[in-house]
Structures are given as C-alpha cells and as structure tokens.
Recover the amino acids of this structure.
C-alpha cells in the first residue's frame, strides 16, 4: 500500500533500531542536494507534511497510534530544524541533535501538542513543534558564533 511506503519513508520505518533517528537522518542528503534552492526545499517540506498527514492517518489503522514505523513526521521535523541554516558539518550535527532531543523528550509545550491533538495531526505537529524549537535555537546559535 502506498501509505505504508510514504509514512515509513520507503521502509526506513521498518528498521528495528531507532527508526525515527534514521528517518531524521534521511533529510541530510536531501538538504545537501536542495541547499541551493530554498523554493524546492520548501516545496518538499510542504509536500512531505501533507503526505505525512494522509499516510499516517491511513497507517494508524494498521499499525496503531503513532507507530514507530511512521517516520515521515521525523523527516518533516528535521527538515524544519535545518531550514534556512547554512549547510556546515557543525550546523547539521547540532540541528540533528537538537531536533532529536526535542522529539524524544518532548518538553513543554511539545508534549501538550501531542496530548491535545489526535491521530495524524498529533503525529505530525509534535514533530513540527520540535523542529521549530530546534530551528529557533539553531538561528540563535548562528547569531552568537
């Protein structure tokens, strides 16, 4: 089924150890390729978010609530965390670690988003919030360098 392929990012979500981390890592080669074009970057981000809403809603019926196999949410969140950040090794590593920190621990208010919403919206938006938080911190980090 197409929804399973999309939500698992072409079966990355089936990796038995840390599928969310692998889903986040999938952003890095795409960012490297699209770095010169913010328009394409934003287009892929928006498309992956919309496909994530659709596919995770379908897949929750098969896999259960916010299954670890659904990693398109990590992909979107990581894209947001690295959005408009200069592509350097330090920035990519810092952005990756910040996003994973906020995605895994879900501090306030990220946890509240997950608890207040249901289904695919909750699956996607808690990762969007983690990505936005990481992105803000990355921009602050870049300003003080």
């Amino acid at each position: 089924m197409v929804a399973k392929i999309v939500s698992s990012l072409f079966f990355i979500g089936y990796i038995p150890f840390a599928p969310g981390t692998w889903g986040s890592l999938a952003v890095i080669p795409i960012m490297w390729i699209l770095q010169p074009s913010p328009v394409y970057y934003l287009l892929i981000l928006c498309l992956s978010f919309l496909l994530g809403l659709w596919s995770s809603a379908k897949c929750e019926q098969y896999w259960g609530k916010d299954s670890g196999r659904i990693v398109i949410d990590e992909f979107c969140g990581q894209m947001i965390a690295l959005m408009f950040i200069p592509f350097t090794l330090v920035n990519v590593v810092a952005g990756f670690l910040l996003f994973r920190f906020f995605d895994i621990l879900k501090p306030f208010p990220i946890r509240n988003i997950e608890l207040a919403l249901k289904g695919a919206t909750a699956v996607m938006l808690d990762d969007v919030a983690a990505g936005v938080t990481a992105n803000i911190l990355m921009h602050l980090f870049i300003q003080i360098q």
